[in-house]
Amino acid sequence: MGVTSSSHGVSVTVLIIVACSCGISPLGTDMYLPAIPEITSDLQTTTALVQLTLTLFMLGFGVGQYLIGALSDLWGRRRLLVIGTGLAAVGSAVAALAPTIGLLLTARLLQGIGAAAGAVLSRAVIADTAHGVLLAKQLSLMMMIQGVLPVAAPLLGSVLAGPIGWRGIMWVIAAYAAILFVCTIAGVPETLPRSRRSGSPISRALLDPLRTLRSPRFASLALGFMMAFGVLFAYISGSSTVLQEVFGLSQLHYGLAFSINAVVMIVGSALNARLLQSFSQRKLAHAGTALMLVGCAGVVVSAATAPMIVFFVGFVTVATLGISFVLPNLTSLALSSLSGDQRGSGSAVLGTGQALMGALVSPAVGLGGAITPLSLGIVMLVCTVVVVSAVLYGRRSA
What we know:
Elements: H1 12-21, H2 24-30, H3 36-42, H4 47-75, H5 78-97, H6 101-129, H7 132-146, H8 148-187, H9 202-205, H10 208-211, H11 216-246, H12 251-275, H13 281-305, H14 309-336, H15 343-364, H16 373-397
Helix pairs in contact: 1-6, 1-7, 1-8, 2-8, 3-4, 4-6, 4-15, 5-6, 5-8, 6-15, 7-12, 7-14, 8-12, 11-12, 11-14, 11-15, 11-16, 12-14, 13-14, 13-16, 14-15
């Protein structure tokens, strides 16, 4: 079966399925972006309304993680994971068939909610069956597997936008979600037995994620996790402008430069899983924050003195390597600090905070006017300083 015991983690099959279920989100956001002008023309609407399809997807993704994570502590993981992947498939199919921008907006919201199930429940499923070092290892392996899609999605979108158009891209996402729907039914067992589920009424269960923040240790580690994602989102939101408009890269070269960091995330996650055999989660988290601090400070110093693309990309790569150490270890430490019937709620807090951080950090990169290597570096460095502070506070509260 997929789960061997409450302390031996999930099987490789389950790990692959739940890791791939996280891929609905990058496919839903990155693949269709090259086709936005085509959507605007095809549906006879405005670019602003088409851009709103991304906003509604992220809204559904953020709110969905909160609701699904909270309810999973009450109802179990498997049922909601099946429903979520099914909803993502249906939402993608409706988007592919949408004759109007109004229906497309509705479909994108459904897509986001469905994608949220995989993102929030993948962490909860693993946390149900493993703890400590094993939990951090399996989270690192999950990140390594799911890291492939953020690399592939933008390239796939660029390649497919011409031959099959935006509707064809939506059908690809629908097919991916439908395959996951079948795989989840066939291969993912329930990891939260009834005896370990929360007995709270639904009204209270929906407030349970907020109650996890009463734990100083969980709250501080969750903040560190969210701000580490803030560093990543800041780079994602500002990289196109900086690399193409400031440093003059072509679209192809920008895609290659952007992919470097995704590859580093995959390699770093694999390296973290291996190093956990010799070092504690806390030591690796500290090493990761140190790398983030060096990388982000390097971006600021080089941008303020002599902006050069080799230094910019190099220091960002160092920071990205640090993030690949920080995320799985902070996730493991944070969820391990909660009881079994709170881990779905804890995962909901992490996922919702991640989505909200992306929404907050992205516009912050351009608050000073034009997006420059210096403005981007400052936002990344500020987020990193908060990560360092949160990790140190989490250590004291432990």
